[in-house]
Design goal:
Helix content of chain A: over 70%
Strand content of chain A: under 5%
Helix content of chain B: over 70%
Distance between the termini of chain B: 41 Å
Oligomer: heterodimer
Strand content of chain B: under 5%
Largest interface: A-B, 46 and 43 residues
Number of strands of chain A: 0
Number of domains of chain B: 1
Number of strands of chain B: 0
Order of helices and strands of chain A: HHHH
Number of helices of chain B: 3
Structural class of chain A: mainly alpha
Number of domains of chain A: 1
Largest sheet of chain B: none
Structural class of chain B: mainly alpha
Radius of gyration of chain B: 15 Å
Radius of gyration of chain A: 25 Å
Shape of chain A: elongated
């Protein structure tokens, strides 16, 4: 039973530290999407760690089964909220702050450029093979 | 360690309320309120276990479900309607 108590204490301590880091990130980060990242990354893991610590402290009862149900609900609900909130903000005209333009556009341009280079390479290979 | 977790959750609630009051856009406020609700569920679970409340987990389950549905509803509302003309 001693080891279970230690594991419970470690889980509770890690959960508390993670909630604190999530709150500091929610307060300090510059952009909405970075704040969303800081809140969502810590939210699921901190909730899981805290509830697992309480489960290990209660033992094998009906309460621990209900707490597992609560973990299941949180695992399903929190990423859904994060995804829907990100999509709503993107639809509402909230764009992420970037140093160099839109990352999606630049990545697509580089992809198209690389594909064009491949086409040119294949053409040169074909033209090189043609004289033989 | 339960006391340390409760103190961390209370500090988290205070910082999240600061973000909810000074958030520049509506989505920041919605995010802060959703995070506040999740941390409230955790505080009910941890504090209820520490204080030995009776059937506290049912309240936490209820609060988690209401928080989920409420955040989705408010977000769908503000996705198309902007009453104060705030900068989104």
């Amino acid at each position: 039973m001693m080891i279970i108590d230690w594991i419970s204490d470690i889980c509770l301590l890690l959960g508390g530290i993670l909630t604190l880091t999530g709150a500091v990130g929610l307060l300090r980060l510059p952009d909405f999407f970075t704040r969303l990242h800081a809140a969502s990354v810590t939210e699921t893991l901190a909730a899981m760690l805290l509830i697992i610590g309480i489960i290990l402290d209660t033992g094998f009862t009906l309460d621990s089964a209900k707490l597992m149900l609560l973990i299941l609900i949180m695992i399903i609900a929190n990423p859904t909220i994060t995804h829907a909130l990100c999509r709503a903000a993107a639809n509402g005209g909230n764009t992420p702050e970037m140093e160099t333009g839109n990352p999606l556009q630049s990545s697509s341009q580089t992809v198209s450029q690389s594909s064009q280079d491949k086409q040119v390479q294949t053409e040169t290979e074909i033209s090189g093979k043609e004289p033989k | 360690m339960i006391a340390a977790a409760i103190v961390a959750l209370l500090i988290t609630l205070a910082l999240t309320l600061i973000r909810a009051f000074m958030g520049p856009s509506i989505y920041d406020r919605i995010l802060a309120v959703n995070s506040f609700g999740t941390k409230t569920v955790l505080l009910i679970v941890v504090g209820g276990h520490a204080l030995g409340w009776f059937s506290y987990i049912d309240i936490a389950l209820m609060y988690a479900l209401v928080n989920f549905v409420g955040t989705l509803a408010v977000m769908r509302f503000f996705e198309q309607y902007n009453p104060r003309g705030e900068q989104l």
